[in-house]
Amino acid sequence: MSIIDNRKAFHDYFIEDKYEAGLVLQGWEVKAIREGRANIKESYVVIRGAEIFIVGMHITPLESASTHINPDPTRTRKLLLHAEQIDKLIGKVERAGYALITLDLHYTKGRVKATIGLAKGKKQYDKRETEKERDWEREKARLVRVKN
């Protein structure tokens, strides 16, 4: 079950590979995500050493859940992947033009997981071409509805 999607990612990037990663979260962050108070539009994934972190994900703290602590809504959060997956990602990201971006947050067996994508940036003409294809599919569906 998806909590939050990053639709902008599919507009700006060609997604070549997807990985499911666990998130290291604090208690107030889990409560806020369950309330739908997270934003991943400007987030991206960085590799430091042999670890992977998500940067720029904003989780707005709840008033009732964070009274005894001083929450940081945009702190860097660690992602949990297998070592061989991290090694594979490091090799691919070091190539020119590849980036790791957050695609969505979802639940798996009651735990909050993130789907990260190995992406290659789209040029402006690629974005226009995608938009033309989407418009043509929409027009085709409309014509079929009118014909029937």
Q: Under the CATH scheme, which architecture would be assigned?
A: Beta Barrel
CATH class: Mainly Beta
Radius of gyration: 18 Å
The overall strand count is 9
What is the spatial order of strands in the main beta sheet?
2-7-5-4-8-9
Q: Which regions are unreliable across 5 or more consecutive residues at pLDDT < 50?
A: none
Shape assignment:
globular
Largest sheet: 6 strands, antiparallel, barrel
Binned strand content: 35-45%
- pLDDT averaged residue by residue: 88
Instruction: Classify the secondary structure makeup into a structural class.
Output: alpha+beta
CATH topology: Small Protein B, Chain: A
CATH superfamily: Small protein B
Helix content range = 25-40%
Describe this protein's structure:
The protein is an alpha+beta fold and 148 residues long. The chain has a single domain, classed as Small Protein B, Chain: A, CATH 2.40.280.10. It is built from four helices and nine strands, in the order E-H-E-H-E-E-E-E-E-H-E-E-H. It has helices at residues 7-12, 27-34, 83-93, 124-147; strands spanning 2-5, 13-23, 38-39, 44-48, 51-55, 58-59, 77-80, 98-108, 111-121. A six-stranded antiparallel barrel has the order 2-7-5-4-8-9. A hairpin with a 2-residue loop joins strand 4 and strand 5 (51-55). The radius of gyration is 18 Å and the shape is globular. It starts with a strand and ends with a helix. The mean pLDDT is 88.
